[in-house]
Amino acid sequence: MTRALIDVEMSFRVTKPGRAALSVAVAEGGTVDRSALEFLGQPVPYTTADFDHGTLVHVLDLPLGDVKLHYTAERTLRIVEPAAITDAELVLYTRPSRYCPSDRMGGIAMARFGTLPTVREQVDAIVRYVNEQLAYVVGVGGPNDDAIDSMLAGQGVCRDFAHLCVALCRVIDIPARFVAVYAPGLSPMDFHAVFEAAIDGHWYVFDATHLAPRKSMTRIATGRDAADTAFLSTLGSEIEFESSTVLTTVEPDLPDENWSELVTLA
Fold this sequence. Notes:
The chain is an alpha+beta fold. It has helices at about 85-90, 105-115, 120-135, 145-155, 160-170, and strands at about 5-15, 20, 30-40, 45-50, 55-60, 65-75, 135, 155, 175-180, 190-200, 200-205, 220-225, 230-235, 240-250.
């Protein structure tokens, strides 16, 4: 039995009390063995909100002052059947979005990938193209950079790789969605971003960074792009973010990765 162990600490200072949305919980999908959120120091009241694909968001009522939180989870890794795409997902995940402006990228996507004979070949070619065209550089880019910005810069972090892949898929009518995950084996360790594409009517996970094995990844949040999956966003409060530490490990060993294999994300 293989287990994924997750440990997250986060610190920030609240300069204006109010609410905030925290998205660090493992997605609820029947595979979570243990999940707990606690606050160190002053207590923070919260409620939870459920979103599609098992995404669980904690809505915090932040008091003034320093806040430090600790989230832990444990999950048994299991092989799952690929989820079938719904008609609603087909519509939603082929449309342009804030960070994936596919309506402005038609030329390059159609020329490079539009004539390939199968969807599988198209997605594989997109992942290979993004892996070769973007250099993974920690700390580059900005929070407002979209897929076009990353493509022109030729570098980015995981969210930029995922955004570009999603946008290129959507241009050629392949449904694609952005996924925030925990990724054991990632170095340096942090929150990670990948994407899912629909092939033959089912969702499969891809990662153009090639930085961690997909079979040990754990879903946190799923959406159109990073705007839907931010790990912390204010809802009337004002905060000064100080630090975060993410540690995810697998017992007993990391699984092998075969990048040509179709993998599903629980």
